[in-house]
Specification:
316 residues; mainly alpha; 15 helices; 2 strands
Length: 316
């Protein structure tokens, strides 16, 4: 593997670096120019999204139902293994809604990054034959992820309504904010990693490991109160800030606060009375900062993508 990587590096050194037509224009100007070019190819983007969805469920009898089977299977596993066997459900009211809420927003982010990372390599034939904005491929993967997210979101909202737990409050405003944050950071990483993966194929495997770590580093199958308790017992309060440094963590917490009504109420669970679940201090401010930093990071990642795309066709 080392010799193959070295041969690839040596071959790249011998190639003249080809600049994209949109690689100039400055940070903001170049970014805006890329947006306009993508908008001009919006019909192609739509076709690629449709192709992505059809290819995923090609020759499948159940079709799009498979987009629900995986998260529902994960919900069942975590509900039984962690909620019942390990007892996490005792301190978390409506544990099933809590877990499915976290899995839904996490699934959107995970799919954007994972499929986006492979999007350039997976479309090598098109990239070699025709010119089009290369950003379209990670964006097509994002569109496919959004479609699956919408299906899961319908099930989640339907479940809250059936259980009489739909949150008719101002907390619902946290939901679109959380989705925007996940989209911004997800697309940013998809652009950056898809470009790097062309030159270093180990990136796609590193992403798999990183997604596994980030899943357990976010309060998806355990509550924020458990994190606070563990960090308080460790006598290292600064770890809370480290934990909240992950933008996905902040987005998951906001999504839970918007849709998990039981987390904002006092509930009696058997002989135990569970009060409203705590939320991070200054959550609103953290969301604003996370969104702004994410937009800046997205612009930087897009410009890096533009710089690196010059030799995509040669390297693929």
């Amino acid at each position: 593997m080392t010799s193959i990587a070295q041969e690839r590096a040596d071959r790249l050194k011998s190639l003249p670096f080809q600049k994209s037509a949109l690689s100039g224009g400055g940070l903001i100007g170049g970014f805006w120019g890329s947006i306009k070019e993508i908008a001009a190819h919006r019909e192609l983007l739509d076709l690629l999204i449709r192709r992505e969805l059809k290819a995923r469920y090609k020759d499948s009898s159940l079709g799009f139902i498979w987009s629900l089977i995986r998260p529902l299977t994960m919900l069942l596993i975590y509900y039984v293994a962690i909620g019942q066997f390990l007892g996490a459900a005792r301190g978390i009211p409506d544990f099933a809604i809590f877990v499915f809420t976290g899995l839904t927003i996490w699934g959107l982010y995970s799919e954007i990054v994972s499929t986006g990372t492979m999007s350039i390599i997976g479309n090598a034939g098109l990239i070699k034959k025709v010119y089009l904005p290369r950003e379209i491929f990670p964006l097509a993967a994002t569109g496919s992820a959004i479609f699956n997210f919408v299906i899961q979101m319908v099930v989640l909202v339907g479940a809250t309504i059936l259980l009489g737990q739909f949150p008719l409050s101002w907390n619902l405003l946290y939901v679109p904010v959380a989705i925007v944050i996940v989209l911004v950071w997800g697309v940013a990483f998809a652009l950056l990693l898809s470009a790097l993966n062309v030159y270093l194929r180990d990136v796609q495997y590193l992403v798999e490991v990183a997604m596994l770590i980030l899943f357990w580093a976010s309060p998806i199958v355990y509550s924020w109160s458990l994190v606070v308790g563990a960090i308080t017992n460790s006598r290292a309060p600064w770890l809370i800030e480290v934990y909240l440094f992950n933008p996905v963590t902040v987005a998951v917490l906001a999504f839970q606060k918007g849709l998990w009504q039981a987390g904002s109420e006092t509930r009696t669970m058997g002989d135990i009375t569970v009060g409203p679940q705590p939320w991070p201090p200054d959550l609103d401010l953290r969301l604003i900062v996370t969104a702004v930093v994410g937009i800046v990071f997205l612009i930087i990642c897009q410009r890096v993508f533009q710089k690196l795309q010059g030799n995509f066709a040669q390297e693929i």
